[in-house]
């Protein structure tokens, strides 16, 4: 496996990871401008969190995702490993347009299952590079697990 050159300045590379995560967040936010209202209009299970919690949680998670990618890179992650990381970012960005933009709750659930599998794959490949990088993704995996359960519940209720 080839690795990305370590000759790049670590702060610059950290910035690249931050930008990649911000782009992921922005794509999602473009389709979720009215998500709070849409979410409140949906029939939701009693255990559904308040709408305001999502932005707070995702802000923290996105910071942890960027740090995870950077730590894995610092520890010699290969192009293939970083590609898996990139795939989970693309899948992350795709969920919001499916769920809120198109209202395709069933398709969004299938997509979030793929996202969950991609996150597991990233955790596994990062574990061998940096346990810290892998562990930083544990809250993300937990939140996506919760979100998948919420997604399927909303799909059934609506």
What separation lies between the terminal Cα atoms? 46 Å
Structural class: mainly alpha
The residue ranges in which pLDDT falls below 50 over 5 or more consecutive positions are none
Stated plainly, the CATH topology is called Ferritin
Tally of DSSP β-strands: 0
CATH superfamily: TspO/MBR protein
* Overall average pLDDT: 92
Shape: elongated
- CATH architecture tag: Up-down Bundle
Order of helices and strands: HHHHHHH
How big is the Rg? Answer: 16 Å
Approximate strand percentage:
under 5%
Number of separate structural domains: 1
Describe the structure in brief.
The chain has 7 helices and no strands. By secondary structure, it is mostly helical. The model has no long low-confidence stretch (mean pLDDT 92).
How would you describe what is shown here?
The chain has about 160 residues and is mostly helical. The chain has one domain (about 10-155): TspO/MBR protein (Ferritin, Up-down Bundle). About 80% of the residues lie in helices and about 0% in strands. It has helices at about 10-30, 35-40, 50-75, 80-100, 105-125, 130-135, 140-155. α4 (about 80-100) runs antiparallel to α5 and α5 (about 105-125) packs antiparallel against α7. The longest helix is centred in the middle third of the chain and has 24 residues, at about 50-75. The radius of gyration is 16 Å and the shape is elongated. The termini are far apart. The model has no long low-confidence stretch (mean pLDDT about 90).
């Amino acid at each position: 496996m080839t690795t990305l050159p370590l000759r790049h300045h670590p702060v610059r590379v950290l910035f690249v990871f931050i930008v990649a995560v911000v782009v992921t967040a922005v794509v999602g936010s473009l389709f979720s401008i009215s998500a709070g209202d849409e979410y409140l209009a949906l029939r939701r299970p009693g255990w559904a969190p308040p709408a305001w919690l999502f932005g707070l949680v995702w802000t923290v998670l996105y910071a942890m995702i960027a740090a995870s990618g950077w730590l894995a890179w610092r520890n010699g992650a290969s192009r293939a490993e970083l590609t898996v990381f990139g795939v989970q970012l693309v899948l992350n960005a795709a969920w919001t347009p499916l769920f809120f933009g198109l209202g395709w709750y069933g398709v969004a659930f299938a997509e979030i299952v793929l996202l969950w599998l991609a996150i597991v794959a990233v955790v596994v490949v990062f574990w061998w590079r940096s346990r810290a990088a892998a562990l930083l993704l544990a809250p993300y995996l937990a939140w996506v697990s919760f979100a998948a359960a919420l997604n399927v519940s909303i799909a059934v209720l609506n």
